[in-house]
Amino acid sequence: MHAGASDSSFEGLGAASAALAAMLSSHSDFGRLGALLASIIETNVRLECLVACKREIIAMMTEGSDLLVECGIFDDAADSTRFLLDLSNYVSGLHPATHPLPTQRAACEETGYPMLSYEESLRDFLTVQIVGYRTLKGLRSDS
Q1: DSSP conformational letter for 86
Q2: pTM for the structure as a whole
Protein backbone atom coordinates (compact mmCIF):
# COMPACT_ATOMS: atom_id res chain seq x y z
CA MET A 1 0.00 0.00 0.00
CA HIS A 2 1.56 3.28 -1.06
CA ALA A 3 0.95 6.77 0.28
CA GLY A 4 -2.39 7.96 -0.99
CA ALA A 5 -3.89 4.49 -1.14
CA SER A 6 -7.66 4.45 -1.08
CA ASP A 7 -9.78 3.77 1.97
CA SER A 8 -11.18 0.68 0.25
CA SER A 9 -7.70 -0.82 -0.09
CA PHE A 10 -7.13 -0.21 3.63
CA GLU A 11 -10.48 -1.84 4.41
CA GLY A 12 -9.44 -4.83 2.29
CA LEU A 13 -6.16 -4.98 4.17
CA GLY A 14 -8.02 -4.81 7.47
CA ALA A 15 -10.31 -7.63 6.35
CA ALA A 16 -7.33 -9.75 5.26
CA SER A 17 -5.56 -9.12 8.58
CA ALA A 18 -8.70 -9.95 10.54
CA ALA A 19 -9.17 -13.19 8.58
CA LEU A 20 -5.54 -14.24 9.08
CA ALA A 21 -5.69 -13.35 12.79
CA ALA A 22 -8.91 -15.31 13.28
CA MET A 23 -7.45 -18.32 11.47
CA LEU A 24 -4.28 -18.25 13.56
CA SER A 25 -6.27 -17.72 16.76
CA SER A 26 -8.33 -20.79 16.02
CA HIS A 27 -5.05 -22.74 15.93
CA SER A 28 -3.62 -21.38 19.17
CA ASP A 29 -1.19 -24.28 19.45
CA PHE A 30 0.72 -22.65 16.57
CA GLY A 31 2.06 -20.01 18.97
CA ARG A 32 2.49 -22.32 21.94
CA LEU A 33 4.33 -24.95 19.91
CA GLY A 34 6.39 -22.30 18.13
CA ALA A 35 7.60 -21.00 21.48
CA LEU A 36 8.44 -24.52 22.67
CA LEU A 37 10.11 -25.45 19.40
CA ALA A 38 12.59 -22.60 19.40
CA SER A 39 13.30 -22.44 23.13
CA ILE A 40 13.32 -26.07 24.22
CA ILE A 41 12.92 -28.66 21.50
CA GLU A 42 15.43 -27.34 18.95
CA THR A 43 18.10 -27.01 21.61
CA ASN A 44 17.75 -30.60 22.81
CA VAL A 45 17.62 -32.79 19.70
CA ARG A 46 20.16 -34.41 17.43
CA LEU A 47 21.24 -32.48 14.35
CA GLU A 48 19.60 -35.01 12.01
CA CYS A 49 16.22 -34.52 13.70
CA LEU A 50 16.53 -30.75 13.61
CA VAL A 51 17.50 -30.79 9.93
CA ALA A 52 14.44 -32.92 9.10
CA CYS A 53 12.22 -30.56 11.11
CA LYS A 54 13.64 -27.47 9.38
CA ARG A 55 13.03 -29.08 5.98
CA GLU A 56 9.37 -29.62 6.89
CA ILE A 57 9.09 -26.03 8.10
CA ILE A 58 10.61 -24.76 4.84
CA ALA A 59 8.11 -26.81 2.83
CA MET A 60 5.17 -25.43 4.84
CA MET A 61 6.58 -21.91 4.62
CA THR A 62 6.88 -22.21 0.84
CA GLU A 63 3.27 -23.36 0.53
CA GLY A 64 2.06 -20.54 2.76
CA SER A 65 4.16 -17.98 0.94
CA ASP A 66 2.85 -19.10 -2.44
CA LEU A 67 -0.72 -18.90 -1.13
CA LEU A 68 -0.22 -15.31 0.09
CA VAL A 69 1.12 -14.37 -3.35
CA GLU A 70 -1.82 -16.11 -5.08
CA CYS A 71 -4.26 -14.22 -2.85
CA GLY A 72 -2.62 -10.92 -3.82
CA ILE A 73 -1.44 -10.02 -0.32
CA PHE A 74 2.16 -10.01 -1.55
CA ASP A 75 3.62 -9.57 -5.02
CA ASP A 76 6.56 -11.92 -4.63
CA ALA A 77 7.61 -14.97 -2.65
CA ALA A 78 10.64 -13.29 -1.04
CA ASP A 79 8.56 -10.70 0.82
CA SER A 80 5.86 -13.25 1.57
CA THR A 81 8.38 -15.68 3.07
CA ARG A 82 10.01 -12.96 5.15
CA PHE A 83 6.55 -11.94 6.40
CA LEU A 84 5.80 -15.54 7.44
CA LEU A 85 9.12 -15.79 9.29
CA ASP A 86 8.38 -12.52 11.10
CA LEU A 87 4.87 -13.74 11.88
CA SER A 88 6.16 -17.05 13.26
CA ASN A 89 8.63 -15.28 15.53
CA TYR A 90 6.01 -12.79 16.71
CA VAL A 91 3.38 -15.43 17.45
CA SER A 92 5.92 -17.55 19.35
CA GLY A 93 6.42 -14.67 21.76
CA LEU A 94 2.84 -13.41 21.72
CA HIS A 95 1.28 -16.68 22.79
CA PRO A 96 2.96 -16.90 26.22
CA ALA A 97 2.36 -13.17 26.80
CA THR A 98 -1.36 -13.48 26.14
CA HIS A 99 -1.92 -16.83 27.84
CA PRO A 100 -0.39 -16.27 31.29
CA LEU A 101 -0.18 -18.91 33.97
CA PRO A 102 -2.33 -18.24 37.05
CA THR A 103 0.55 -16.65 39.00
CA GLN A 104 1.41 -14.39 36.06
CA ARG A 105 -2.25 -13.42 35.62
CA ALA A 106 -2.57 -12.58 39.34
CA ALA A 107 0.57 -10.43 39.23
CA CYS A 108 -0.74 -8.59 36.15
CA GLU A 109 -4.10 -7.98 37.80
CA GLU A 110 -2.53 -6.83 41.08
CA THR A 111 -0.12 -4.41 39.37
CA GLY A 112 -2.37 -3.24 36.55
CA TYR A 113 0.08 -4.67 34.02
CA PRO A 114 -1.67 -4.71 30.63
CA MET A 115 -3.11 -8.03 29.48
CA LEU A 116 -3.02 -8.27 25.70
CA SER A 117 -5.66 -9.86 23.54
CA TYR A 118 -4.05 -12.52 21.35
CA GLU A 119 -6.30 -11.99 18.36
CA GLU A 120 -6.35 -8.16 18.56
CA SER A 121 -2.56 -7.96 18.93
CA LEU A 122 -2.11 -10.40 16.09
CA ARG A 123 -4.51 -8.48 13.83
CA ASP A 124 -2.66 -5.20 14.47
CA PHE A 125 0.71 -6.86 13.89
CA LEU A 126 -0.47 -8.35 10.60
CA THR A 127 -1.80 -5.01 9.37
CA VAL A 128 1.38 -3.13 10.32
CA GLN A 129 3.60 -5.79 8.75
CA ILE A 130 1.70 -5.96 5.48
CA VAL A 131 1.61 -2.15 5.17
CA GLY A 132 5.30 -2.05 6.05
CA TYR A 133 6.28 -4.62 3.44
CA ARG A 134 4.24 -2.85 0.77
CA THR A 135 5.80 0.49 1.71
CA LEU A 136 9.30 -0.98 1.58
CA LYS A 137 8.58 -2.47 -1.83
CA GLY A 138 7.44 0.95 -3.05
CA LEU A 139 10.56 2.61 -1.65
CA ARG A 140 12.81 -0.01 -3.28
CA SER A 141 11.17 0.47 -6.66
CA ASP A 142 11.45 4.28 -6.37
CA SER A 143 15.24 4.12 -5.92
Answers
A1: H
A2: 0.74
